[in-house]
Structure formats: structure tokens, C-alpha cells
Amino acid sequence: MTAMRVFAGNVFPLVRGRHLLEPPALDKWLARICETLEQTALHDGGHVNWSKIIGALPPGQTALLVQHCHGAAGVINCLADFPENSLWSLSGLLNAAAELTWTAGPLAKGPGLCHGNAGNGYAFLKMYGRTQDEKWLNRARKFAMHAIKQSTLAAKEYGQYRHSLWTGDLGLAVYLWDCVRGTPQFPTMDVF
Predict the structure, then answer these.
(1) In angstroms, rounded to a whole number, what is the distance separating the alpha carbons of residues 182 and 170?
(2) Other C-beta atoms within 10 Å of 60: how many?
(3) pTM here?
(4) I need a surface site. Which of 72, 149, 185, 190 has the fewest CB within 10 A?
(5) CA dist 149 to 19, 31, 65, 156, 172, Å?
(6) Are the beta carbons of 107 and 67 closer than 8 angstroms?
(7) What is the pLDDT of residues 116-161, one digit of tens each?
(8) Dihedral, CA atoms, 146, 125, 102, 107, nearest 10 degrees?
């Protein structure tokens, strides 16, 4: 896992359970989350991503990936429900991360959730849920169509579908259903 994906995954329960915290403590937590994401964000024009680790990379590894388990899409999937107010805002970062995910295009790795097009597509569904901008729903559905093709080609090549939630067709099926409904219900994170 990535440093920022781990960070986003760790603060995800806090954001979801924010109603359980008293306002002064909640305000401090949310401000720190914003500060951390802002200070670690890597900007390139209108795009934002986060390095997969903070510090020196092991030899032969790249710092920047764009997928649910590394980078922009995972941060969006974890933090799209982040509340906004005059003291903090993640809207600009999340929008720029979603634009990067779109510009990077569909992943060659496959249709799954973890490091595939369903996981990246959920970032668009999450942005649609956050903004109600139809652009994000349309983009999610375009990624879904690409993921269907990947799944079909892989099934032909290997003689079977891949029966896995995170890296296979089960996760893709859940994503496709959410694209039909237009609701971002990421498995295990949003639906337990």
C-alpha cells in the first residue's frame, strides 16, 4: 500500500464517523487531514497525485501510480465524503485528482477494484456523489465499458472469469451495478 493511500484509508473511518466526535476535536482532525493532503500533494497543471511512498524509493520502483491502491483514485475513494467549511476544503484537490485519473485513462492491469478500472471508476462515481455533476457519472460509465471489454478478453484467454472481489470480476460486477444506479457504494468501505 502507498503512504498516502494508507493515510487516506486510516482517516476514512474518522471522516465517516465524524458525528461521534465533539466539534473542537473534529475541527482539529479535519484541519490536520487537509493540511497533510495539501502538503504531500504533487501538482502538475490541473492534476494532483500523491507519491506511493514518502522518502526514497527502492531501486526500480516508480513513485507515481494512478489506481485505487496507489495514488489519486484511492484518496478520492476514501475521502469523497469529507465535509467542507470555511476552514478546510478538499474539493480542489479531489477534483484535480479525479481529472488526473481521467487524463491517465483506463488501466492496462485489468477490470478489478484494487489496481484496475473498477477501482479507478469508483473515483468518478464518488465525485458524482459529491458534486452531482453528470460529467463524473458519464466518465464512470465509460470506464465501466472498458472494464467489461477487459473482463471478456481475459475470460476468453484463460477460459474462465476471475472470481475475486478485489482483483476480479466480482468487484467489477458490483461496480457495474453502481454505475447503473449512479450510486458510489465501494465494497467493504461503504458497504460492510
Answers:
(1) 18
(2) 5
(3) 0.92
(4) 149
(5) 41, 42, 22, 11, 11
(6) yes
(7) 999 999 999 999 999 999 999 999 999 999 999 999 999 999 999 8
(8) -40
Q: What span, in angstroms and rounded, lies between the C-alpha atoms of 23 and 40?
A: 26
pLDDT tens digits, 12-58: 999 999 999 999 999 999 999 999 999 999 999 999 998 877 666 66
Report the alpha-carbon distance of residue 32 to residue 84 in Å, rounded: 14
Closest CA to 121 of 44, 188, 49, 180: 180
Q: Could you tell me where the beta strands, DSSP code E, fall in the chain? A: 42-44, 47-49
Cell of 47: 492534476
Total residues belonging to the chain: 192
pLDDT at 63: 62
76, 125 contact by CB (below 8 A): no
- Which phi and psi (to 5°) does residue 82 adopt? -60, 130
pLDDT confidence band for 85 (50 / 70 / 90): confident
Helix axes 72-79, 91-104, angle to 10 degrees: 140
Backbone φ/ψ region at 159: left (φ over 0), alpha (ψ -120 to 50), beta: left
